[in-house]
(5-formylfuran-3-yl)methyl phosphate synthase
Amino acid sequence: MNSLFPDRTAFLASVVSKEEAIVALKAHIDVVDVKNPAEGALGAALPETISEIRGVVPKTIPVSAAIGDMPYLPGTAALAAIGAAQAGASIIKVGLYGAKTPDEVLKLLFSVSTALKKYCPESSLVVGAYADAQFFGGIDFLAVPSMAAEAKAAGCLLDTFDKSFGHNLLEIASMERVRDFVSACREWGLFSALAGSLKLEDIPLLLPLRPDYLGFRGALCEGGRSGKLSSRKVLEISSLIAGESSTCRRS
């Protein structure tokens, strides 16, 4: 995939090790995402993990990395972004957990985007919004795309913060609001990504919205997001996205 704006909905698979990356690559994967579920929804992996995964992923496939459900610590966020980028990630995801006001969001995001532009210009910023932000006093996800665009981000991810009850995106946010998020990203010139404990049966519901990416972790594993990646489940979801998204793009 040579562009961050694919011509069909692309498949992002989250892995925790180079061994899982090798398993995922047996299917058609558009983006290999590195995260550490033990540290949260957008938990950060160690730099060496990112580097090892980048080493086994073909150069034609982007590697993304989460840098955390970020507190309002702009300097910490900027340093984490540089670390992930220099370890090999070309897409850096920062979760808007601690920033509670628009001013805080913008200060946090500008700290990251400015650092990436200066030190790692080949890497792109993706802003992680949470569908359940109202439960921890966070920013409403529909307000995020405009601020992400102002901060020169490349895209926005809509995820869920609380994974403890297994609630997925469509159990927390209405389809109308998810559609509005995808539309807002498009209007602001950002790519859109949807995640949040997505299940196989969510794919035909979400693809008509034409998001640029659908992201999965738990649905790819035996035993949930902290379990072992299953090659069978990866292939099943990859095949469904490829088939369904082709139909949606043609319609």
